[in-house]
Amino acid sequence: MDKVAIVILNWNGAKMLRQYLPSVLEHSRTQAAVYVADNASTDDSIDLLRSEFPECRLILLDRNYGFADGYNKALRQVDAEYYLLLNSDIEVTSQWLTPLIALMDTHPDVAACQPKLLSVADRTRFEYAGACGGYLDRYGYPFCRGRIFDNVEQDQGQYDHTADVLWATGAALMIRSRDYWKAGGLDGRFFAHCEEIDLCWRLRIQGRRIVCEPASKVYHVGGGTLPKSNPMKTFLNFRNNLTMLYKCLPGNELKKVMRVRWWLDYVAAFQMLLLKGNFGDFRAVFRARRAFKSWRKQFADDRLRIQAGRQGGKIAEQTDFSLLWMCYVKGHRRFSEIVG
Q1: Which position among 11, 79, 117, 169 has the lowest Cβ density within 10 Å, counted as fewest Cβ atoms?
Q2: pTM value?
Q3: 142-144, strands of its sheet edge to edge
């Protein structure tokens, strides 16, 4: 068994692998095994890996299973104490693994952790996908230390302390293998988007901790598979977010939150159409809500099981306030202004 297995899920990402895999190998090879799991790429990814990176262990999947189930199928073939799910567009830094491993080794109650995530495009700023650890507001809107909606902060050391969070970014997620499988892994039905938030939330419900360790630092390109304005990304984000809320919210909150989200989602859709002229994203929100309604019953047993396994009371990192109200009414655009 490996102590740490870094697993990079790839789909037609030869360009990213050529650019960023060398840093992973250079700064990780003494502390971890490095795997690349390929989601049936049609570019030259496999030839590249075999010719230029023979030290990587290859896992070849028979088709594109997406991010969520692709990782599930790949990780079943990996024997390690800690998995580290790593995007192919991540540039790591010297000794980046050391603080993460030390945290996990000394805190058995921590199921998963992430490093500080900074932007490749502007190395002084956090990166949207996870910044310095994630939270959820009352209505399921994710935000981070260092990122509120599209407002991404400059890194001035303001979050350079280890902190408990609700979710760790799937771009660079270290997780105990036993916790991963005990929680059921990523939900493969999601395909992509919100899957790591869903997994981390389920772990928090079980009483396990999720932590950001900013002593570890990596740089992320972001948006490598689907650009930000892609209607498919909008569809997956809305559908999966609603599904995650249905699975994880306690019974005394579920109906109220879902009623409010009905209004908020359609307001968002018309804003996309009327203010941005984006008909594709407008349609995607309607499609997402229909898709959630049609498949919600598939998750009824999941919801019962998740709620039956609930440990303790309220999860502190899922806040009581509305992020929309805090941001667009009160004008708070920084994490420290909202949470303190």
Answers
A1: 79
A2: 0.95
A3: 134-136, 142-144, 147-148, 151-152
Secondary structure class of 118 (helix, strand, coil): strand
Using one digit for the tens of pLDDT, what is the confidence trace for 7-32?
999 999 999 999 999 999 999 999 99
Query: HEC profile for 11-31?
Result: CCCHHHHHHHHHHHHHHHCCC
Type of residue numbered 141:
Y
Beta bridge partners of 61: none
What does the pLDDT average to over 148-156? 96
At residue 7, the 3 state secondary structure works out as strand
**8 A C-beta contact, residue 7 and residue 85:** yes
Could you tell me which of 50, 35, 34, 38 has the C-alpha nearest to residue 12?
38
Here the tokens at position 102 are 């030390």
Number of C-beta neighbours around residue 309 at 10 A: 13
Angle of helix 45-52 relative to helix 14-28, nearest 10 degrees?
30
The helix/strand/coil state of 85 is strand
Handedness of CA 198, 126, 27, 228 (dihedral sign): positive
